[in-house]
């Protein structure tokens, strides 16, 4: 009897450590247009079931993943003439699937690490505008105690200074670059002598992003106010344009 109990505990411990609790990720498109979510899995973790797909206005789609880590974003204004290309957040694969390619900045990102922390029992998630912004998005944990939703609901494109803006064919801003991308200077990229949390303060440009979306990362060392956690086992709703 005791041996059986011991084996059961061992099995449960193994399941928890290996992250075998599958989580459901639901993607929902509240944009008044079609988007094409892209997914990049970090090295060394199990792949996500999709690397990119089409999501029409008001549509939603769910996937199951376990022990996953990586990032989500959404491509806009995609066309498939000779090859698949998108006006914003393209991954350059030439296909709907990103197949291991990440978003070409600027792109609003959702970053996720399941089964993190010392006991591998914590999910970490955030919204990052470190690579710029293309559309509003949010992460809403479903279930799990003390889990907080995180969102970047502001239309940063309308607040984007000219020197950072990406314009569409009709002259409207369709995305907003980070200052690091545009100026490639250490104080904006947190490199060189600015390469640590204590030596890379917010800048006038990162503040534009932070003021618009206080819960999102606005530059590389913006950790304090931008990282969220949830006990592993929750499901997640990723919403675009909300
Ligand atoms: C940010 O600061 C730089 C350097 O002082 C200045 O050249 C730039 O015009 C400022 N931009 C904004 C949007 O405030």
CATH architecture type: Sandwich
Rg, Å, rounded: 19 Å
Class in CATH?
Answer: Mainly Beta
What is the count of structural domains?
A: 1
**Class by helix and strand content?**
alpha+beta
Shape: globular
* Annotation, overall tally of beta strands: 13
Distance between the termini: 53 Å
Identify the CATH homologous superfamily: Thaumatin
Low-confidence stretches: none
The small molecules bound here are: 2-acetamido-2-deoxy-beta-D-glucopyranose
The percent range for strand residues is 25-35%
Task: Describe the largest sheet.
Answer: 6 strands, antiparallel
Q: What would the CATH topology be?
A: Thaumatin
Query: What fraction, in percent, of the residue positions are helical?
Result: 10-25%
Written as H for each helix and E for each strand, in order along the chain, the element string is: HEEEEEEEEEHEEHHHEE
| Chain-averaged pLDDT | 93
Q: How many helices does DSSP assign?
A: 5
Organism: Coptis chinensis
InterPro entries: Osmotin/thaumatin-like_sf, Thaumatin
Signal peptide: 1-22
Pfam family, one: Thaumatin
What's the structural blueprint in terms of helices and strands?
Elements: H1 2-17, E1 23-29, E2 35-41, E3 60-65, E4 69-80, E5 84-88, E6 109-116, E7 122-128, E8 137-142, E9 150-152, H2 156-159, E10 165-167, E11 173-176, H3 179-183, H4 186-189, H5 204-212, E12 228-231, E13 235-240
Parallel strand pairs: 1-13
Antiparallel strand pairs: 1-3, 2-4, 4-5, 4-6, 6-7, 7-12, 8-9, 8-13, 10-11
The protein binds 2-acetamido-2-deoxy-beta-D-glucopyranose.
2-acetamido-2-deoxy-beta-D-glucopyranose (NAG) binds next to loops.
């Amino acid at each position: 009897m005791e041996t059986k109990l011991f084996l059961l505990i061992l099995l449960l411990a193994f399941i928890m450590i290996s992250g075998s609790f599958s989580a459901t990720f639901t993607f929902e498109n509240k944009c008044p247009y079609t988007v094409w979510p892209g997914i990049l899995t970090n090295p060394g973790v199990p792949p996500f079931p999709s690397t990119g797909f089409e999501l029409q206005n008001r549509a939603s789609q769910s996937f199951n993943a376990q022990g996953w880590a990586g990032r989500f974003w959404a491509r806009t204004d995609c066309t498939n003439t000779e090859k698949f290309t998108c006006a914003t957040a393209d991954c350059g694969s030439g296909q709907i699937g990103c197949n291991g390619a990440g978003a070409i900045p600027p792109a609003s990102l959702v970053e996720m690490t399941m089964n993190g922390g010392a006991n591998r029992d914590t999910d970490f998630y955030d919204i990052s505008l470190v690579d710029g912004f293309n559309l509003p998005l949010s992460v809403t944990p479903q279930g799990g105690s003390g889990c907080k939703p995180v969102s970047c609901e502001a239309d940063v494109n309308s607040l984007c200074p000219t020197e950072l803006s990406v314009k569409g064919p009709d002259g409207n801003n369709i995305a907003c670059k980070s200052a690091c991308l545009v100026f490639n200077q250490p104080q904006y990229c947190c490199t060189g002598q600015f390469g640590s949390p204590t030596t890379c303060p917010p800048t006038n440009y990162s503040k534009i992003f932070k003021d618009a979306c206080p819960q999102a990362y606005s530059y590389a060392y913006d950790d304090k106010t931008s990282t969220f956690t949830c006990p592993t086992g929750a499901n997640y709703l990723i919403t675009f344009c909300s």
